[in-house]
Amino acid sequence: MLRRVLIANRGEIAVRVIRACRELGIETVAVYSEADYDSLHVHLADKAVCIGPAQATRSYLNAGSLIGAAMYVKADGIHPGYGFLAENAAFSDECVDAGIKFVGPTGHSIRQMADKAVARTVAAEAGVPTVPGSDGKAIDSGELAAVAEKIGYPVLIKAAAGGGGRGMMLAETPAQLSRNALSAQAEAQAAFGDSSIYLEKYIGNARHVEVQVLGDGQGNVIHVGERDCSMQRRHQKLVEEGPCPVITRALRQDLHEASAALAASVDYEGAGTVEFLVDLDEQAFHFIEMNTRIQVEHPVTEMLTGVDLVREQLLIAGGEGLSLKQKDVKLRGHAIECRINAEDGARNFMPSPGMLAAYVAPGGPGVRIDSHCYAGYTVPPYYDSMIAKVIVWAANRAEAIEKMRTALAGYIIDGIPSTIPFHLSLLESEAFRKGKFNTQWLEKNIGQVMPQESMTA
Ligand code: ADP
Questions:
Q1: Separation of 24 CA from ligand 1 center, angstroms?
Q2: Residues 196 and 68 reside in one and the same domain
């Protein structure tokens, strides 16, 4: 078992990992930037080390500082959380070189999946259907037109190193393709230091469905249910739920099995997520990418199955293998997660950092809050704006929606605008209540959902 784990992250996920470590008797070391000295994870950990200034490139993205800190405190493991260096193959390798266990897959598995164009080939080789598109490798601009012609417009230009919807652009005509390919390359270069792009057929009427997997690194992989993350703005998830309310039992089974097969094909170690688009017109599924880390929305699965995914990550990294078998995974009821951001829904989701004058989180049966916030805490402007996740569980979807409404209505966050009014409004919409929406729905209907005025204290 691991003895002392350094958490190379901040915010709610750092708090989440600290809790899981503590339950397993593992000592915890927090790291923090100068802007985060007062963050909850710093207070909760057994030890805390300052790793640099506010800018992420000089702190949470600084592999040298993180590994140096881990060696200094004699940590035998590093948990990367999500974002920052969580899917950085070189960082995983550097941890190994420093004699520290990286809580996640090997650099080799990350490399196979981190380049999304390469991952398409790996998926196809494992027999998993991918979205029609370029043949796996990142292609140069000369080939773009031919590929687009072959698969048919509209096409989506995507960054091979992509994430968070960046470097992704639609093209409906050849002229748009050549213009937008340049913008996508520039955006990808700026965001990821890698300008490679690839093409996919644009699937207009789709749900985003993803499958949680756990692997022991020896080829044993189990699937732990799916999540539907189709409620998106700018290709970013805002609400996630499970199980997916619109797929058949047979399709669900196929998705689960394809995901486990893909993860097993790369001897996957740890927790990962295989993402698909389910084409609603054709009732067919297509692989889009694999995330080789714990995801923001992992609590949906934890509520549905009772499996503690972060605990499993730590046990696997400690050499204990998988603590459960496929037959032990049972899906019960319905779970929903709303991401609460420090953003003003009435002002085009403008970030709204600042001090929380008052903060009281909701509770009660089936309500879980993952957050690093407290009254008096100042949300810094330097990092992503998520301040909390509200996750509810109930026997069925309708009851889960009511539980979410009650929880959000009772969540007191004063001092800065948050997206709570937006979520409350979204929960009222007929499309959400009926479960009838696709990945485009929110973008097209945002004017209808958006609250009229922000709710500041
Ligand atoms: P990222 O890694 O940037 O998050 P993904 O490949 O995971 O990008 O896609 C994010 C979202 O973008 C999907 O959930 C979906 O809404 C949209 N998307 C991605 N690929 C396609 C596609 N081929 N057709 C239509 N929408 C897509």
A1: 36
A2: no
Q: pTM of the full predicted structure?
A: 0.96
Tally the domains of the chain.
Answer: 3
Q: Tell me, what's the pLDDT at 390?
A: 99
What is the residue whose two structure tokens read 């509209």? Answer: 154
User: Catalytic site residue 3?
Assistant: no
In ligand 1, the atom with minimum distance to the C-alpha of 204 is: 25
Cβ atoms of residues 425 and 408 within 8 Å: no
**Residue 115, in any domain of the structure:** no
Pocket lined around ligand 1, Cβ cut-off 6 Å: 131, 156, 162-165, 168, 200-203, 206, 208, 232, 235, 275, 277, 288-289, 439
Residues of the domain holding 310 = 206-449
Here the CATH number for the domain that contains residue 80 is 3.40.50.20
Q: Which regions in the chain score pLDDT beneath 50?
A: 454-457
CA distances from 111 to 79, 81, 105, 122, 266 (A): 18, 18, 10, 11, 10
- Structure token pair of residue 268: 């996957």
Provide the phi-psi class of 70: left if phi over 0, else alpha when psi is between -120 and 50, else beta.
alpha
Of 108, 56, 113, 109, whose CA–CA distance to 85 is shortest?
Answer: 56
Flag whether 190 is in a domain.
Answer: yes
142 and 194 both lie in a single domain: yes
List the residue whose alpha carbon is closest to atom 21 of ligand 1.
Answer: 202
Which of the residues 10, 207, 293, 368 is marked catalytic? 293
Same domain for 406 and 258? yes
